[in-house]
């Protein structure tokens, strides 16, 4: 077990440093890239918070959908091949739900402010 | 790089003196932006009656290779297309001179610098454009109708791409990028099953008609810019590309570029003689346009992993998931109502 502060807390404080202290001293493209960098740290923070459990759930769904074991990467590749060939479609039991669940998780980590994601959450409710 | 010490300043001044009536030299030369396939320079021609605002579009270092994965047209072709578009009433910056070998500047052309705004953030939010916004969708439709009517027999040699061709081109890129996106496979499958028939009539297509390439003034659309990926294709492609969610910049209920409604775009298109808008093909191109942006984001991630250490490029790689949610809303809607 690592000592305090946690990885998430470290990322938060670096993000605060960039936004509140570094950025105001920067100009033009460098200031813009500093903001992009702070946003990237936010992605990492959300991935640390959400990723492990959501990844396990995605892996479990993939095993159930494909009826076999394997790495999450290998099973995703196999799913792609079956969708591409038409062997699995939106009418295949569980596929639509799996794709929605996986997509919403990715957005919750990558870009929770994205308009399409927010609208999808409203439509799901 | 500023004007005075720039190696193109002297040859450009000479070209301007020869080809812009009354010009005695140039002033205020500055590089506006740079892409892989094009340089854009802003400058003024100095004349006794005042400064003439101009733009130089030039191949990087003077010579263009294949550009945007081989789809960019040569600059001479771009200039020719702008002239043809002007003839049918599409607002464009008039071309003043196309570079020849003796000009010593490489491939490029000089056109008028049209004042106005291209940044979506400002066009969609600033008070200055409040009166323009409600008119823009219809104007875009009218302009696209004219653009699609350019006489094909007058066109310079251009890439011809049907919907099916574009699906296969992007599928190949997706497979080469070699990272699994089940939602993208779902979209490719749907696109193959729903491609427009081969008998679809093809026209000149701008190819990148969207915020950023439209010069807007307080009164509305002033000019259509950036003709470098123009080709012959399905005219519905241009009507859909401006409607994909990334170009709405958060204004999700304003499908046309974040400023207008499809009904106005289509009404303008049909009223200006653009032919009947086909909802099935519109949806095909919206799905393909969304997917194209997703594959481009994957390309950014790949470029980053291959050594381009830009923090911006790295994070754009994480934006392909945005297109996945847009594709899911188009193909597997949660409301039971297709978007």
Task: Please tell me about this protein's structure.
By secondary structure, chain A is mostly helical. Chain A is built from 5 helices and no strands. The longest helix of chain A has 39 residues, at 28-66. Chain B has 2 domains: 9-112, Phosphorylase Kinase, domain 1; 120-331, Aminoglycoside phosphotransferase (APH), C-terminal lobe (Aminoglycoside 3'-phosphotransferase, Chain: A, domain 2, Alpha-Beta Complex). Chain B has helices at residues 9-19, 75-87, 120-125, 133-147, 163-177, 182-193, 236-241, 262-271, 279-305, 311-317, 320-331, and strands spanning 25-34, 39-47, 50-58, 95-98, 108-112, 203-205, 214-217, 220-224, 231-233. Chain B has a 5-stranded antiparallel sheet. Chain B has a two-stranded antiparallel sheet with strand order 6-9. In chain B, strands 7-8 form a two-stranded antiparallel ribbon. In chain B, helix 4 (133-147) packs across helix 8 (262-271), helix 6 packs antiparallel against helix 9 (279-305) and helix 9 packs antiparallel against helix 11 (320-331). Classes of the chains: A mainly alpha (125), B alpha+beta (339). Chains A and B meet through helix 2, helix 3, helix 4 and helix 5 of A and helix 6, helix 10 and helix 11 of B.
